[in-house]
Write a structure and sequence with these properties.
about 270 residues, mainly alpha
């Protein structure tokens, strides 16, 4: 799917995800959440998701991917810190410590160059617009997670997982139909293998969003947030298995620190529930 525009990828994978969700609507609570008056909030979450994608793309066009993800992974901090204000779940000291430990592990894995190299600072080449876009994407992600946690009782898993994706598809559709718009390369008919790729992407999207929805329905946001760091572990694993990209010792150490942060949070929850 490398030759296909981002809009086409978002639309087709999103449509597959929506078909899967609707097929399981009966087991996911149906659309009752819309009738309970939270449609505007769900639509807002969809717009936040679309904005997060756009900001991330701008950041990736201006900065190295490691630098972008180093900033994007500030999202768990942005989830835990204001959690007590929006969702009445003030973080405990152990929760905050776990987030900080996990963040240190992320930075060890990613080793963001422009934050540790004086050469980039010296020549004035810091892409501040890219950094601001990455931070904005992290803020939008945090806002979406906090909204989901705050109002999940008035909705259903189907509404929480599917409707924001539907909004993202609708936002991306004009870009798919217009060649001249950013990220809109027009429609390219997928080949058989590419259709299979879209189907797999939609299935993974459905599974990932449902896992997040059910996690936030069963645990405080401060507990779920540090688990986002585990994406780095999957990235290292897939890079090694698929692309033969062996992690260096510092990256491996950072991955172990991330695991330690998750275990620290899980132990804190068990102690509070005991």
């Amino acid at each position: 799917m490398g030759a296909h525009g981002l809009a086409q990828v978002l639309v087709l994978s999103g449509l597959v995800m929506l078909v899967v969700m609707m097929a399981a609507a009966r087991w996911l609570g149906g659309m009752q959440g819309v009738a309970r008056g939270i449609l505007a909030l769900v639509v807002l979450r969809g717009l936040l998701s679309a904005g997060m994608i756009a900001l991330s793309l701008h950041a990736l066009s201006r900065m190295a991917i490691a630098d972008v993800y180093a900033l994007r992974f500030l999202a768990p901090l942005l989830i835990v810190m204001p959690g007590g204000l929006l969702i009445a779940e003030p973080p405990r000291t152990r929760d905050l410590a776990a987030v900080l430990v996990g963040l240190a592990g992320v930075w060890a894995v990613l080793k963001p160059g422009w934050l540790v190299s004086g050469a980039v600072v010296a020549d004035g080449a810091i892409p501040w617009d890219g950094a601001a876009a990455a931070l904005g994407a992290a803020a939008l992600q945090a806002a979406s997670v906090l909204m989901l946690r705050r109002w999940h009782a008035a909705s259903t898993p189907l509404v929480d997982a599917a409707l924001p994706v539907m909004v993202t598809v609708l936002v991306a559709l004009p870009f798919l139909l217009e060649n001249g718009m950013p990220y809109g390369h027009g429609w390219i008919m997928p080949r058989a293998l590419e259709w299979a790729g879209y189907a797999a992407a939609g299935l993974f999207l459905a599974g990932g969003r449902l896992c997040l929805v059910f996690a936030l329905r069963s645990a405080p946001a401060a507990v779920v947030a540090p688990a986002h760091y585990s994406q780095l572990l999957w990235g290292l694993a897939f890079g090694w298995l698929i692309f033969a990209d062996r992690p260096d010792p510092i990256s491996t150490m950072g991955a172990l620190v991330i695991v330690a942060a998750g275990l620290m949070t899980a132990r804190g929850v068990r102690l509070r529930q005991a």
